[in-house]
Design a protein that fits this description.
Blueprint lengths: L1 H7 L5 H40 L5 E2 L3 E2 L7 E8 H4 L9 H16 L4 E6 L7 H21 L7 E5 L10 E2 L2 E2 L1 H7 L1 E7 L12
Parallel strand pairs: 4-5
Antiparallel strand pairs: 1-3, 2-3, 3-8, 4-8, 6-7
Helix pairs in contact: 2-4
Length: about 200
């Protein structure tokens, strides 16, 4: 690219030097933009892997391809209530704050990435109670991210109660504590934006 531009504007002596000085900044900007465009998808994947590697208790599900367009990848991070919250199951623990602090650093490096925060419970209690708890869990995570510099317009926060369990709460009619522990969780979904995404996503 530089060679062809240089030949196209080549003159003699100082004229050639002046031409090169004029076009070089434009070429550098073009190359930088191309490199940034090509690097973004790799960065998101690498940074997600880094966050998981440095935070025990934070799990990464298999990356998904958005069914709407077949292109946008979604990275689903999951952490149990015991990992993120204190004894009440709704207030962030010091360990939970440390995990989310690391995540906020990742998101600050990739300002175009959108975030869905989904809170869940097990089936203990009434559906109304579980909905309230799941809302509180999602809101606690969202508030921490916003308080640590993440634009709230990027975040969709929602509680889904006891729906969508990832493990059985009971087995053959008997309580399954291990399964319940897995269902009490927060999922944080990271994805690249689509043109139709609304600007304000916090609910």
């Amino acid at each position: 690219m530089l060679l062809s531009l240089g030949l196209a504007g080549a003159g003699q002596g100082s004229d050639n030097d002046a031409y090169i000085r004029e076009v070089t900044p434009e070429v550098r900007e073009l190359v930088a933009n191309v490199e940034e465009y090509e690097r973004d998808p790799v960065e998101l994947s690498q940074l997600v892997q880094d966050v998981v590697a440095h935070n025990e208790g934070l799990m990464l599900q298999e990356p998904e391809t958005d069914a709407a367009d077949g292109e946008h990848e979604r990275f689903v991070l999951s952490a149990t209530s015991d990992t993120l919250f204190g004894s009440d199951g709704k207030t962030l623990s010091e360990g939970g704050q440390a995990i989310l602090g690391h995540l906020a650093e990742l998101l600050s490096e990739l300002p175009e990435v959108l975030v869905d925060v989904m809170g869940y419970t097990d089936s203990t209690g009434t559906k109304e109670q579980n909905q309230e708890v799941s809302d509180a869990r999602a809101e606690a995570v969202t508030s921490y991210l916003v308080d640590n510099g993440i634009n709230g317009a990027r975040i969709l926060s929602k509680g889904l109660g006891e729906s969508q369990p990832v493990a059985p709460n009971e087995i053959d009619g008997n309580d399954n504590p291990e399964g319940r522990a897995k269902n009490r969780r927060v999922e944080i979904i990271l994805s690249s934006p689509r043109e139709e995404e609304p600007q304000e996503r916090v609910q």
